[in-house]
Amino acid sequence: MVSFFLCLALLIIGYFTYGKLVENTFGPDDRETPAVVINDGVDYVVLPQWKLFLIQLLNIAGLGPIFGALQGALWGPVVFLWITFGTIFAGGVHDFFSGMTSERNNGASVSEITGIYLGSTMKTVMRIFSVVLLVMVGTVFAVGPAGLIVKLCSEAGASGILLNASFWLTVVLVYYFIATFISIDKIIGKIYPVFGICLIIMAVGVGAGIVVNPAYQIPELWDHFTNMHPKGTPIWAFMFITVACGAISGFHATQSPLMARCMKSEHQGHFVFYGAMVCEGIIALIWAAAGCTIYEITDGQTTGLLASLAAGQSAAIYDVCSKTMGGIGIGLAMVGVIACPITSGDTAFRSARLVLADWLKLDQKSMKNRLILCIPVLGVGAFLGIGNALGKIDYTIIWRYFSWTNQTLAMIVLWAASMYLFYEKKNYWITAVPATFMSAVSATYFLLGNECLGKLINTKTAEGATVYNTAVAYPIGILVAALFLGIFLYTIKKRHTQPHYETLHK
Fold it and tell me: Are 313 and 70 in contact (CB under 8 A)?
């Protein structure tokens, strides 16, 4: 378990060292923030720093670093490296700049920020991208908790409607509508800190369970530095897409403006944005370690974990909690696993409302205008979620599309941050390098993923197993990343003035 603790230490050290470097590169000052200047009592509300951190953590964490980390553990301990270095050099940087560039531009949504630094075409692309992503996230974080609640009710001996997933999904969606509609401090500002504590305790409980129990031994990275996936799925770029939350996630860029609208000082950004991402990385590392440790490994492959996940992700989470904490601990853990994704789902739909509001220039002080946006946004989420509950829409397909869209969004945000740093005459390489890396990830997966172009270039064995055409996808992915970097470097040589800052709708 030495490699596990080494990665854990690196995450903590990274917050205080590289995270501080990122903050100093940005250069926070004492200017008045949007929360102070605008303060509309709905979306722009000053909140204390500890609440900002816990709300941001809940917004970005949810089921993402749990589901994604467990799925990532199928590749074995090599996933520890992606979680650790992805968080420090990519995810933390992404979250910090998505939040702070929003704060510098009146708390604008990620689509509007992209438009400022990358132009009107990318603004349109990001508007569509972010709304689609947020609705998919909201749907995933509605279906997941509903399944977990049904699981708990079943274990408790309940019957009837309490075992109906559609019923619980409806309850969750009704709550989402209320949370999306009302002021941010009415529910989010009051109950999120409690659930944030639950999330942290849950992670500590699972981590302690696999470390203290002599029956478990976390495998060392250097002893298992290989692809352990039972299906032989390539590490590149599948693992980097699967483990999004917990390493780097474009979804976070849609959430950061929520807290950018509630900060009293720019100096809070390091703790709120970079710090919350590091905390999520730690959570993901713990769950990935649990997935690598608890389940049987056969012939160097994670067959036991694959079998557990085949029974459903909710069932796998329940199983991990049961094996690591037992009676009292499992109750707390499952509450956390249910509540925390719900807290990500409601802010996903809330962010979708705000993106559309910025897009359509609809003043959100008006209850009528909020209602105009809430109804269609939640309507689409209900259609997707209930469709899954009835077996008409495949949940895993939704998740896979979310994953690729998610990482592509992160790529675009990093390029926008690079342009921001160029305009500010600061070190843009801290964002341009991870932007290039994520460009290669997104392009490669787009070629290999069966929900993208994979069905066109991949083949099948006689037994039906997929043979991935990496000989074509890998070089093209690298070339696409190099092209994007080249375009960026060419562009900054042609630009010498500040961008045209739009008059943003407040």
Answer: yes
Rounded to whole angstroms, the Cα distance separating 239 from 257 reads 28
Say if residues 399 and 314 touch (Cβ distance below 8 Å).
no
What CA–CA distances, in Å, run from 446 to 71, 320, 443, 454? 19, 32, 5, 7
Nearest to 70 by CA among 210, 243, 226, 329: 243
Q: State the chain's mean pLDDT as an integer.
A: 88
8 A C-beta contact, residue 188 and residue 302: no
Identify whether the C-beta of residue 415 lies closer than 8 Å to the C-beta of residue 484: yes
What pTM does this model have?
0.91
Choice between 325 and 76, residue whose per-residue pLDDT is larger: 76
End-to-end CA distance of the chain: 50
Q: Which residues contact 493 (CB under 8 A, 6 or more apart)?
A: none
Domain 2-35+45-494 has CATH 1.20.1740.10: yes
Half-sphere exposure of 482 (CA within 13 A, CB side): 6
Of 31, 130, 143, 123, nearest in space to 349 by CA: 130
Segment 98-136, tens digit of pLDDT: 999 999 999 999 999 999 999 888 899 888 888 887 887
CA-to-CA separations, 425 to 236, 348, 448, 495, in angstroms, rounded: 34, 33, 38, 12
**Cβ count near 476 (within 10 Å):** 15
Give per-residue pLDDT as tens, 445-487: 999 998 889 989 999 988 888 999 999 999 999 999 999 999 9
Tell me the domain boundaries of the chain: 2-35+45-494
Least confident window among 81-85, 160-164, 227-231, 254-258: 160-164
**Which spans in 361-394 are helix H?**
367-389
Residue carrying the six token digits 């739009």: 502
Cβ neighbours of residue 182 under 8 Å, at least 6 residues apart? Answer: none
Backbone angles phi, psi at 104, to 5 degrees: -75, -10
